[in-house]
Amino acid sequence: MSRKITVKASKSYDVLIDGGCLAKCGEKLLEYFRPCSVCIVSDTNVAPIYMNTVKSSLETSGFAVNEFVFPAGEESKGPATLLELWRHLASVPMTRSDMLIALGGGVTGDLTGFAAATYQRGVKYVQIPTSLLAMVDSSVGGKTAIDLPEGKNLCGAFCQPSLVICDTECLDTLPKKEYSCGMAEVIKYAMIDRPIIFDLIEKNDIEALIYECIDDKREKVEADECDNGVRQLLNLGHTLGHAIEKLEGFKTSHGEAVAIGMTLITRYAVTQNMCSESDLVQLISALKKYDLPTETQLSASEIAGAAMGDKKRKGNTVTLVIPRGKLGSVLVPTSTSDVEGIVEAALRKDTK
Question: 206-223 vs 196-203: helix axis angle to the nearest 10?
Answer without folding.
Answer: 160
